[in-house]
Amino acid sequence: MGTRTCTQFCLCTVxxxxxxxxxxxxxxEVGSYxxxxxxxxxxxxxxxxxxxxxxxxxxxxxxxxxxxHVTPPEYDEFVSIVLHGxxxx
Length: 89
Known about the structure:
mainly alpha
């Protein structure tokens, strides 16, 4: 996969994936791929920034929905989502 293909993949991902967990994993894999292929840092950030921003937005949305509807048995799951989202920041 070339850098152009990676860029197109990231744009499709930002526009179609809504799961913050999937976005988080994809952002990590893309970052690793770009690091392994010695992509220049400014170009790397151009590819990753929209993906990371979408991931953060989806974590915020997920936390908001969970917070509004959290019940005592779901509290641990809610805390796990917050911690997972905070780890990506």
